[in-house]
Amino acid sequence: MGAKNRHLRRPAVSLAAVLGLGCLLTAIAEQPQVIFQDRFETGRVVAATSWTQHAADAGRSSYVSQFVPTPWRWKWAWNGPDAIGAIVPGKTSLPRNVQPITGSGRVYVAAGSAGLIALDQDDGSELWRRSFDGPVQTTPAWDPASDAVLAISLDGQVYRLNAASGATLAVANVPGAGATPPLLVDERLFVAAGSELVALAATSLDEIWRHETGSNVETAAAYSVLADRLVIGTADLYIHAVDAADGSGVWRVKPTPRVPPLDPDQLVYAGNEASYRHGWPVVADAHGLVLIKLRLDWQTMWSFGEHVTNESIRQFMLGNPDQQALMVLDLDTGQPAFVANIAHGGYGNGDYMPMGPQPVIRTTADGNQRAFMIIRGSDLYDGRWDSHFGELVLDDNLPDWTPGDVRWISYPGSVDYLLTDEQPNLSMAGNHLLGGHWMAGYAIELDDQTPPLGSYSAPITSTALPHIVTSSNRGQYNLGHWDPGPLVQDDDAREFPFGFYIYWDQGAVYDQYWSEYASWVVSDGLVLFRSTDGALVALEHGEPVIGPTQEHLQAIAPLPTSEQERAHLVLRHDQTRTAVGQYAEVHGRIRSVFNNGKAVQLAFAEPHRGHFKILIERQHWPSFGPALGTEMGWSSAGMFAPGQRVAVTGRLNWYQGDPVIRASSADQIHIHAD
Cα separation of 5 and 260, whole Å? Predict the structure, then answer.
């Protein structure tokens, strides 16, 4: 790489402005007046061309310069549909943050207790499968230098495998490893293990050094190419920079006034709690920055308010430092570089807001870098309706835009916004911006990006690329899984422009195989979509197949007759998981009532995730009458209230991995008198 000199200056940001009074931040170095130093004496940043480890590359950019031109056509699917679009026998879910990676004509997938699986890139057939003493919960890394795969099982075993056969080449015991993906940088492999970051030789897996952080490491490591420096986040909400050569600490900062949750596994956060769990640092070497996202509490969705200008958002962020969801730090010092106008979102329900999408760093041909995010800012309705695709400005090279500003990107769908409690996970290939929603896959190509475009009223324009939904029964099934549009998911009213369906007439498959995560990966000529239900779909360049069609032959089990329904099961709410699919009468005491605008949810545990619940969907509200009470948010003013003992009758189904009965009339729910 040729040498290149570039000096970018950003105004220093005071800690009081970023964090507010009372927030402690510890750092090794003083904050400089010129934050960005010359980082181009020995080379420049070059974008990855293939997706070979988690988030594409060592900087965790979630970006590759390679893209697959449209049109796209269906190539193959794994762990998803059979030849007639039904659910393949033996289907399983995948761990939450797992992404497919590629190398040497193969696709590698971490499959939890099923181990590590290699697929043929041409047809999706299974080439080999390795199981270990512990499950493989995180994305592996492919080593192009030796055609080897490096993976970690949850029992702390680090494996180097022959990528062609799956045979073990080396193994190391690193207790505590396996919860976050490994990081491969040339001949070095970095793994988080408990409170330590451990460096191993990539070939022999011999230990090189260990760095103790003092708290459990919650994120995968990210790497700065130009500084030879690693960045990680720990459970105590500190961010650490570690010298990759010797493991020495460079700086350690706590950039938020929030505190860690009392229990790291808890789902519901109080208003002052946060974590980095299920996220990862993202390095923007060209600007000397590292970006790291916080998971905040559910209430942040409602706290943000209505904003349509950067000045309004910035004033909110400066006045409410606990609402800052994305921290942007200087790689040299760890000090805040600027306040990012990014408010929190994700996809959750009721009291649970998970870690939302991570930043994407796009590297251009000249070595410059741009950041893309799901941003918030709108004057529509309320906080649930204010998300958009967007750009986070990293420098002062755009007229009238300053670092930390956001630029809105239009979405060419039936509505020009995204739901804040359904934000998709982002990745990017060339100029294609891709979003992994729990039900679908968004895909757009950025058009005119020149200023003054980028404001709320005049956003950057985009063109729709083929989308994907989990299941559809619109029209007639075809072998190419293609629908010219509008593309509609079974039992959901929203419309996507056009594209593919994974299953035919299978309903909400994601609810049964819920993993909270979907993602797009583009690599080696393939567009890969990993769905929330664990299916892996491969698309390639070519005209989509519209025919021949094949009759959908799956036999749909008839609903029970009214006589059969009378012979239903009688269950407590905590006995329902093994009875899904059956007609039942379920008894329990309501713990919470919540209306998210789409459904009234009656929950029998707090937090409700992992437990039985009753859903009264919006289209059925009129059958309950005005007594139901349909005000959004937490409410006990209507027909149902916390503390009531109820019995609900209906067919048990899945909803986001939990058992549920969908009530369409008040006759299904009987309130018991205490």
Answer: 41
Q: Give me 335's structure tokens.
A: 């000090």
Dump pLDDT digits (tens) for 626-646: 888 877 777 766 888 888 888
**pLDDT tens by residue, 456-477:** 999 999 999 999 999 999 988 9
Q: Do the beta carbons of residue 75 and residue 539 sit within 8 Å?
A: yes
pLDDT for position 555: 36
Cα dihedral 1/141/224/236 (nearest 10): 180
Q: Considering the entire predicted model, what is its pTM? A: 0.84
How many Å apart are CA 613 and CA 604, to the nearest integer? Answer: 6
Check if the beta carbon of residue 395 is closer than 8 Å to that of residue 428: no
Q: CB within 8 A of 586, min separation 6: which ones?
A: 571, 572, 573, 576, 612, 647, 648, 649, 652, 661
What's the gap between Cα 454 and its chain centre? Answer: 24
What residues pair up with 593 in beta bridges, in sequence order? 602
At residue 373, what is the residue type? M
Given a contact cutoff of 8 angstroms between Cβ atoms, the answer to whether 597 and 383 are in contact is no
One-letter-per-residue 3-state SS of 49-93: CCCCCCCCCCCCCCEECCCCCCCEEEEEEECCECCCCCECCCCCC
For residues 593 and 633, what is the distance between their CA atoms, to the nearest angstrom?
A: 9
Q: How far apart are CA 527 and CA 10, in angstroms?
A: 37
Span 345-357, mean pLDDT?
A: 88
β-strands 425-429, 63-64: how paired?
parallel
Q: What are phi and psi of 301, to 5 degrees?
A: -65, -35
* Eight-class DSSP state of 303: H
Strands (DSSP E) contained in 326-429 are 326-330, 360-363, 369-376, 387-392, 406-409, 425-429
Write the single-letter amino acid at 580. Answer: V
* Model confidence pLDDT, tens digit, residues 212-225: 999 999 999 999 99
CA angle 230/59/427 to nearest 5° reads: 145
Q: What is the DSSP letter of 422?
A: B
Reading the block at residue 318, the tokens are: 């400066």
- Quick check: 2 pLDDT over 60? no
Note whether 443 and 467 are within 8 A (CB): yes
3-state secondary structure 594-628: EECCCEEEEECCCCCCCCCEEEEEHHHHHHHCHHH
Whole-number Å distance between alpha carbons of 230 and 295:
21
Residue count of the chain: 674
Q: Is the dihedral of CA 307, 313, 319, 320 positive or negative?
A: positive
Q: State whether the Cα torsion 243-372-517-88 is positive or negative.
A: negative
Q: What single DSSP character describes residue 156?
A: S
Is the pLDDT at 501 greater than 80? The verdict is yes
Residue 102: how many CA atoms within 13 Å on its side-chain side? 21
Unique residue bearing structure tokens 């700086």? 251
pLDDT digits (tens, 9 = 90+) for 543-569: 998 766 544 433 333 444 444 444 468
